[in-house]
Structure formats: structure tokens, C-alpha cells
Specification:
Blueprint lengths: L1 H11 L3 H18 L16 E3 L2 E4 L2 E3 L1 E5 L3 H5 L6 H12 L4 E5 L10 E3 L2 E2 L1 H16 L3 E5 L9 H11 L15 H15 L16 E5 L13 H17 L4 E3 L29 H5 L7 E5 L1 H4 L5 H23 L3 E6 L10 H20 L4 E6 L22 H18 L6 H8 L4
Parallel strand pairs: 4-5, 4-13, 5-8, 8-9, 9-10, 11-12, 12-13
Antiparallel strand pairs: 1-2, 2-3, 6-7
Catalytic activity: Random hydrolysis of (1->4)-beta-D-mannosidic linkages in mannans, galactomannans and glucomannans
GO biological process, one term: polysaccharide catabolic process
Protein name: mannan endo-1,4-beta-mannosidase
Length: 440
């Protein structure tokens, strides 16, 4: 009743509609530019990650990574209703002692596209990526940013080929023409330059000058099956890694490989999961040994690569797979090796929840032993972490880590173990100093 009387009074004085209009205008400003008023002044000062031989260093101290994948950060930051998930994920991960998140810095065509068409970008989505980087910095988390997808999800190389075909400049409709078509190479170089030179609207720092970014990843899981010799993909990696380094000499760079050995590798028959793995157009050693590539990347999905092995057999293979690549890092590449994706599917016929923890523990143990022995196995990244109410974005590998006490304990134990080897990073002191003490 009081409310209706006030409305009549305002209306009688001719003020009701102007006030409503002004309130609507303020709401519009907040939805459009609200983050400009968010306080990012509390961000932690970070230094660039450097490499010396087979190890990473931060501020002169060796750095081993306990990391994770949340590919969805930019996509969810583009929508104000889901943007709070970014802070929730980053804060929770920092509390677990995690230090690096791998995420997509691409979305080509489609919904919430960063690149709408070649050279045309959606500023709203770019601001979403700005927000992700600023929020990561605020929480002391570094980022590996991947620049394009070999798969069709979020556009990928398929979208680039489609754009070239629609513009009448494509040499072929094959998805693999992404790697050799001159027009598509120009599209991608333009994209890379635009991203690397982007000035973050919240921090005022160009991406190429921001130590929040741990590294750039050229492409997620590259394969060029139309040229199993590997020459086409190798040429692309050489050209694009050189191009990235011509713009940004401060950040580390990796390819984004799964880790398969190519047809000329002596390991193709003893380390690959099966015969098909040598015919994908990639080669772990050849692709990673380039001087413009700072560290190697490997994925670990034995249940995705085999269809007739039981869990124990897959676990044994995964351990050998990891040790083979660490050996390569030590002896052949003389570079760090990051296992940038690993996980176990809950869709496996014989899946039991305890198996996932056993698999995760095996991976983490290999990294810890590598760290203790100063070997090249420099870290691992869970695939993938989500927050609550994200079922639609989950796959058979995703977990909300704090919902499973045993998994949560594995993650935090690894943070404490690595901190014991390398010492606490300045970004970890608040969360781990007391947290790890009872375990040592």
C-alpha cells in the first residue's frame, strides 16, 4: 500500500517515468561495462615463467606444475549470468594449491564466437577473455592459452576451411588444408597477431606483456591424416611458431601435441598405443625439437585409445607412456614435458569410481618422482574441472573436485608434495603454508 501511494505521488509530479528510465539506463551501463568498475587492484604480482634446459623457473626457483583444464572459461565469462563461475573455479583451484589452468583462447564462428569471421572479432567476447586473464592474475593462477582447435568444437580448423571455401579462395575442402592453404595461413596469422597484441581493458596490459599467461599453445591435438609423413604439419608448426616468436619473445610456446610417435620414429612400434597412432601426421620428437618450441606437451587417454584392454592393462600402459616421454625430454629434446591433459572416462564398461582415483594417483606419482629427480616431467593437467550446475558442459571425464573427498585429497597432496620439492611459490603461501604443514 505504501508502494502504490509512492507511485501515485511520483506519477502526479511527473517523475515516475523519468526515474524508471534513468534506472534502466544505469542497469544497461552495468550489464555492458560493469566489469570496468570491478576492483582488480588486488591482483598478485607475477613473474614470467622461464625455461632452463629441462626445467621451468619462476623468480630463479624451479617450478613444477599441478594444473588443470577448464576449457570453458572465456565462453562462460561472455555471459553475465555464468560469469561468476570463473571466479569460483579460480578461487577454489588456488585454495587447492593449483598453479596453472589450460583454457581456450579461441571460439571461431558459432555462438559466443570470439572470431566471427576472418579478422572480425566480437568485442564482448574479447572482454570476456580479458576478464578471465584479469581474474586469474587476481588469484595467482597462470594460464596456458590455446589458439585453435584441431577438432570441430568451438570452430577449429574446420571453420577456417569453411570460411576460405565461402570466400572462394580455398584450395581444397579438406579440413587438413588448414595447414597448407596460403589464405587460411593468413587468416590464422591475423588471428594470432590480434590476440597476442590485445590490450586487456581491465589491466591495461597487452597479452604479450602479461606474465599471467604461462604459455601459448598453437593448436589443441593437431593431426594431419592426409599426410602421414608428417611433413605438412611440421612445416605449419615451423612457420607458426616462428611467427608467434616474432611478436612475443617473453612467453613460452608449445605445440599442443597428444604425444604420438611418427612413422620414422624408432618408438612408433614400442611406445604408441596401436599402429594407427603413427599415421596421424604428427611426431612427438620431430614436432617438439624445434628451437621455437619451448616445451613438449603430451595427453594421456588410454581408455580412449584402446577398446579391448581392461583397466589394469590401461594403467600399466599409461605409466609406460609417461615415462617414455620424460625420457625423451631428458635425452632427446632437452626440454620440459607437460602432460597437459589426462583423465579416465566414467563411460568405460568396467568403470568404478575408485579406478579414477587410482589413475589420477598414478599420473601424479610419476610427476612427483620426476620432480624429486630433477627430470623433465614438469607437471600435469587434469581434464577437466567444472563447478556446480555445469552438467551440460561436462563430458565423461569432468569432475567437480570438491564434491569427491578422495579426489580432492589427491589434488591437494600433490600441491603439497611439489611445494616440498620446489618451495612454496609466493602465490601459494596464503593457502598452503598451514594446509600442508600437518602432512609433512
Amino acid at each position: 500500500m505504501v508502494k502504490s501511494s509512492m507511485s501515485r505521488m511520483l506519477a502526479g509530479n511527473g517523475l515516475f517515468y523519468p526515474i524508471i528510465g534513468f534506472a534502466s539506463f544505469i542497469a544497461f551501463l552495468y550489464l555492458s561495462f560493469g566489469d570496468l568498475w570491478v576492483n582488480y587492484s588486488k591482483e598478485i604480482n607475477l613473474s614470467f615463467v622461464e625455461r632452463n634446459g629441462t626445467q621451468f623457473y619462476v623468480d630463479g626457483k624451479v617450478f613444477y606444475v599441478n594444473g588443470w583444464n577448464s576449457y570453458w572459461l572465456m565462453d562462460h565469462a561472455a555471459d553475465y549470468s555464468t560469469r561468476p563461475r570463473i571466479r569460483t573455479m579460480l578461487q577454489a583451484s588456488a585454495k587447492m594449491g593449483l598453479t596453472v589452468c589450460r583454457t581456450w583462447a579461441f571460439n571461431d564462428g558459432g555462438y559466443n564466437a570470439l572470431q566471427i569471421s576472418p579478422g572480425k572479432f566480437d568485442e564482448k567476447v574479447f572482454r570476456a577473455l580479458d576478464h578471465v586473464i584479469a581474474e586469474a592474475r587476481r588469484n595467482g593462477i597462470r594460464l596456458i592459452l590455446s589458439l585453435v582447435n584441431n577438432l570441430q568444437a568451438y570452430g577449429g580448423k574446420t571453420q577456417y576451411v569453411k570460411w576460405a571455401w565461402e570466400e572462394g579462395v580455398a584450395l581444397s575442402s579438406s579440413n587438413d588444408s588448414f595447414f597448407y592453404d596460403p589464405s587460411i595461413r593468413r587468416y590464422f596469422k591475423n588471428y594470432v597477431k590480434t590476440v597476442l597484441t590485445r590490450r586487456n581493458i581491465y589491466t591495461g596490459i597487452e597479452y604479450r606483456d602479461d606474465p599471467t599467461i604461462f604459455a601459448w599453445e598453437l593448436i589443441n591435438e593437431p593431426r594431419c591424416m592426409t599426410d602421414p609423413s608428417g611433413d605438412t604439419l611440421q612445416d605449419w608448426i615451423e612457420e607458426m611458431s616462428t611467427f608467434v616468436k616474432s611478436i612475443d619473445r617473453k612467453h613460452l610456446l608449445t605445440v599442443g601435441l597428444e604425444g604420438f610417435y611418427g612413422p620414422k620414429s624408432p618408438k612408433k612400434s614400442i611406445a604408441n598405443p596401436e599402429v594407427w597412432a603413427a599415421d596421424l601426421g604428427s611426431d612427438f620428437i620431430r614436432n617438439s625439437i624445434l628451437s621455437t618450441v619451448d616445451f613438449a606437451s603430451v595427453h594421456v587417454y588410454p581408455d580412449h585409445w584402446f577398446h579391448h584392454k581392461n583397466f589394469e592393462e590401461m594403467l600399466k600402459f599409461a605409466a609406460k607412456w609417461m615415462l617414455s616421454h620424460i625420457e625423451d625430454g631428458d635425452r632427446e629434446l632437452k626440454k620440459p614435458v607437460l602432460f597437459t591433459e589426462f583423465g579416465l572416462s566414467n563411460d568405460n564398461e568396467d568403470f568404478e569410481p575408485a579406478q579414477r582415483d587410482r589413475f589420477l594417483k598414478m599420473v601424479l606419482d610419476v610427476i612427483y618422482k620426476s620432480a624429486k629427480r630433477n627430470r623433465s616431467g614438469a607437471g600435469s593437467f587434469f581434464w577437466q574441472f567444472l563447478v556446480e550446475r555445469m552438467e551440460r558442459f561436462n563430458d565423461e571425464y569432468g569432475i567437480v573436485p570438491w564434491e569427491n573427498p578422495s579426489t580432492y585429497r589427491l589434488i591437494t597432496d600433490q600441491s603439497c608434495r611439489l611445494a616440498k620439492v620446489q618451495g612454496l611459490l609466493s602465490t601459494q603461501v596464503e593457502h598452503l603454508k598451514n594446509f600442508c604443514a600437518p602432512r609433512n
